[in-house]
Amino acid sequence: MTDLEQSQQKEILQLQEENKLLRQKLDLLIRQMFGKKSEKLDPAQLELLFSEMDDNALGKDESSTAHIELLEDEPKSRRRKPSEPRRPRIPEHLPVVEEIIDPDPVKACPDAWRLIGEEVSEQLDYEPAIFVRRRLVRRKYVKKANREAPPIIADLPPKLVDGGIASPGLLSQIVIAKYCDHLPLYRQEQIFSQRHGVEIPRQTMARWVEVVADWLRPIYDEMTRKMFTGSYVGADETPIKYLEPGAGKTKQGYLWAYRVPDGDTIFDWHPGRGHECLESFIPESYNGIIQCDGFIAYKTYVSDRKGIKLAGCWAHARRKFHDAFEVGEFRELSGWILRQIQHLYRIEKKLRDCRAAPSLRKVVRSFESKPILKRIKKALLLFKSRSSILPKSLFGKAISYTLNQWELLEVYAGNGLVKIDNNLTENAIRPTAIGKKNWLFIGSKEAGWRSAIIYSIIESCRNRGINPAEYMRDVLTRLPSMTNWQISEITPQAWAKAKEEAKKLSDAA
Question: Is pLDDT at 64 greater than 80 in this prediction?
């Protein structure tokens, strides 16, 4: 075979390999767009793949399998779902409106009939929201004994918008509708006009939203301060487009999300995605763990901050092996890795179910999770050495990502406070993803802070089971007459605690 033929043959093989990789990427893209979104796999399918694996080739040892066997699920015949009380079809806390329906003969001559009982049936009804003209009538008085003295009148209560007509209830509704129910201002303008006959231009509502965000900023700052007094926080970012004046098109900005388990969610707006965004938001006094994905900005940020340590996210690593499994690339090997990661998550589920303290979680992870982690790493190094697994393939990329993040992925096993993944922070970002599908973009680069503040308040309310509309209306009513020293009393955490204590007092009375 001539040199030209060898060169052509080599080029053909290279093109065939590139074609294969492109087809895999296309197949994955089609699955992501039109397939199911869940990453759940059939346990029986994984069991079949697992049984076909050559365990000796992966360096299986008895010490690691001893822990894995303890993690197997119980047989289906033994499983019992915990009994839960059946929810009432109509919630008991709703107000009752009674309507008495009498037969026509009784209506015609009620004195001829005697009531002997009744039958009650219930329906769930809904009354649409209404606009109200709230008049504040301040009466003037003059002293009878001294009519020449100037009259007196009560002071007008402080308002959020000086000289404006918007009450806290209306402002709360506009903000909740946009950031919680994902209704853009132009749709709210149409609803108010067509259903209620009230004309409120969207430009006016946009100014009101800015006023609300400005009033909520001290609460936002207090929540941020408290968040970074701890030692663990999750971080993630999501792209959101914004309008650039004069450019005639949108540009890409980012909402950075920070979340503490069982705590607040804080968003921070930046037009970029560099490590400078972290430097400008996280206080220099913070010394703790930041859990994140493999984005380079986090590593660049901590390179100059020796007091901060990064923790990896196993959900991101798992997702990459799942993509390789779905397109059928090295299905047995990717299935085996997924099975091991499944063992890690089963341990975490048992710890959650028993509400284990951080100290207990650390001990259990040390004895059960670390042997599995050791086995996964040994297998990944073995797979990486195989020439048949190309670095640019989906499975090869999953291996490289996991090994590059390995030190960060092991952090959770040695710390009882850290979660196995960063899903809590990712879940906090989801409402913003739904919202931007409706309102598409932020009005300007300078307007991003409004969304960050309001989303932070709403998501922190959700984390604590608070009705965001109830909280927003109450806080916007109280804020104009409060001082900065009282802000700590109306954060979502403090507000929820005060409401719970008030409920206990009411129940005791």
Answer: no
249-271, pLDDT tens digit by residue? 788 889 999 999 888 999 999 98
For 272, the token pair is 């970029």
DSSP characters over 86-147: PPPSS-TTS---------HHHHH-GGG---------------------------EE--TT-T
Alpha carbon distance 116, 1 (integer Å)? 108
CA distances from 381 to 59, 107, 377 (A): 11, 87, 6
Best CA proximity match to 491, nearest among 464, 503, 501, 480: 464
List the structure tokens of 209. 């939203």
How many other C-beta atoms are found inside a 10 Å radius of the C-beta of residue 113? 13
Q: How far apart are CA 330 and CA 398, in angstroms?
A: 12
User: What CA–CA distance (Å, rounded) separates 91 from 167?
Assistant: 30
SS3 of 317-345: HHHHHHHHHHCCCCHHHHHHHHHHHHHHH
Nearest to 444 by CA among 267, 247, 245: 245
- End-to-end CA gap in the chain: 98
Please give the Cα distance from 254 to 267 (Å, whole number).
Answer: 10
Question: Could you tell me the pTM of the whole model?
Answer: 0.80
C-alpha pair distances (Å), 12 with each of 8, 9, 15, 16, 508: 6, 5, 5, 6, 82
Instruction: For residue range 80-106, list pLDDT tens digits in order.
Output: 555 666 777 788 888 899 989 999 999
The Cα–Cα gap between 156 and 271 comes to: 41
